[in-house]
């Protein structure tokens, strides 16, 4: 077998009494991932540094109560549509659908009660080269304004070669839009450093989606050359961040469009840890934690200030339902939504 162990515990209970389970996936290499059934969320991920000392490299909370309160999507599965939809609306087959507006006039990460705020059904899985947890959720027709009953499945696997793999699947009984991602906030120092501005980032993208002041795409795909968005070669995150109004919160157009490909690489010089992200999605959202403002106290009593973590969300482009020129996020009955993202870890 894979050598990965899977254990299950109750993490807490929802207001109505329903238990929230947490699954721990542990490998002999020292990598350990914890996933909970509420929000299909990645709660923690422990990775060794160059000295062999393991530490948790994502932001979040020590108890369920933190996740039940207001927070900026720590580790959750975002859906039914991750990222923003302009005006919280789209037109499909001549019918206008009004979504929940939860980001000013716009729709963000599935709405007021998106996939991050529901209880998923979870079951452990064990395979020859991996072990993990499979989570499923049925999103009913017109939930948060979306047409169609959507059967969604998210599977986390920890592999024998030290990868965290996330598979997303969905099917629908009516034509709808789907865009799922994980919203982990990374800090590869093990949260020993209060911000991630010293991390070194490379993104395999020649273009990015230009956005307006409300972070809605204009439809233009500018070249990254000679701009602070040029991460084609490794760049320190904080080196040019002040040249970007508000900080980074932009979708990058992944260079490769043929199957699973490298999308981004991040290295934290102090610990030696690095993260490689592979995906078959056309975009990756780089968010530099601009809205973290010191009002949230997270794991171990740590206060999360600005840039305490960064996100690299594999996805289709923001507001694709309103941009025919973007890769389509339509899912039709009889067809299957299927996408994968792999996180590969190591040390330098």
Characterization of this structure:
With 348 residues, the chain is mainly beta. It has 1 helix and 28 strands. The protein has one domain: Beta-galactosidase, Chain A, domain 5, CATH 2.70.98.10. The strands form 8 sheets. It has a 9-stranded antiparallel sheet with strand order 11-12-13-14-28-22-21-17-19, with no helix packed on it. The chain has a 5-stranded antiparallel sheet with strand order 1-2-3-4-5, with no helix packed on it. Strands 18-20-23-26 form a 4-stranded antiparallel sheet, with no helix packed on it. Strand 11 and strand 12 (130-139) form a beta hairpin. The mean pLDDT is 96.
**Any guess at the CATH architecture?**
Distorted Sandwich
Spatial arrangement of strands, main beta sheet: 11-12-13-14-28-22-21-17-19
Low-confidence stretches: none
Shape: globular
Radius of gyration: 19 Å
Span of the ends, CA to CA: 29 Å
The first-level CATH class name: Mainly Beta
Domains, number: 1
Structural class: mainly beta
Main sheet record: 9 strands, antiparallel
What is the total tally of β strands?
28
Query: What share of residues are in beta strands?
Result: 35-45%
- CATH third-level topology: Beta-galactosidase, Chain A, domain 5
In helices, the fraction of residues equals under 10%
Number of helices: 1
What oligomeric state is this? single chain
List the helices and strands in order. EEEEEHEEEEEEEEEEEEEEEEEEEEEEE
Taking all residues together, what is the mean pLDDT?
Answer: 96
């Amino acid at each position: 077998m894979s050598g990965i162990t899977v254990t299950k515990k109750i993490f807490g209970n929802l207001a109505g009494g329903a238990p929230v389970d947490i699954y721990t996936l542990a490998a002999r290499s020292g990598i350990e991932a914890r996933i909970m059934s509420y929000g299909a969320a990645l709660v923690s991920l422990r990775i060794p540094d160059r000295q062999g000392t393991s530490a948790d490299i994502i932001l979040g909370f020590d108890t369920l109560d933190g996740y039940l309160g207001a927070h900026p999507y720590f580790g959750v599965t975002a859906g039914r549509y991750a990222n923003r939809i302009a005006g919280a609306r789209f037109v499909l087959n001549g019918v206008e659908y009004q979504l929940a507006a939860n980001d000013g006039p716009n729709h963000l990460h599935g709405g007021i009660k998106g996939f991050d705020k529901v209880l998923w059904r979870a079951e452990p899985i064990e395979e020859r080269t991996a072990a993990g947890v499979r989570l499923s959720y049925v999103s009913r027709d017109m939930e948060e304004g979306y047409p169609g009953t959507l059967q969604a499945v998210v599977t986390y696997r920890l592999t024998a070669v030290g990868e965290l793999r996330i598979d997303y699947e969905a099917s629908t009984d009516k034509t709808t839009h789907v865009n799922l991602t994980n919203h982990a906030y990374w800090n590869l120092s093990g949260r020993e450093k209060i911000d991630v501005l010293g991390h070194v980032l490379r993104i395999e993208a020649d273009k990015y989606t230009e956005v307006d002041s409300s972070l809605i795409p204009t439809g233009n795909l500018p070249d990254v050359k000679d701009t602070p968005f040029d991460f084609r070669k490794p760049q320190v995150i904080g080196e040019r961040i002040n040249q970007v109004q508000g900080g980074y919160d932009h979708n990058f157009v992944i260079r490769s469009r043929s199957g699973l490909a490298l999308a981004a690489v991040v290295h934290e010089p102090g610990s030696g840890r690095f993260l490689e992200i592979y995906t078959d999605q056309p975009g990756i959202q780089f968010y530099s934690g601009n809205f973290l403002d010191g009002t949230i106290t997270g794991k171990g009593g740590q206060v999360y200030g600005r840039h305490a973590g960064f996100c690299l969300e594999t996805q289709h482009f923001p507001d694709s339902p309103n941009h025919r020129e973007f890769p389509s996020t339509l899912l039709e009955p009889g067809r299957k939504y299927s996408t994968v993202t792999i996180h590969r870890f190591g040390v330098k």
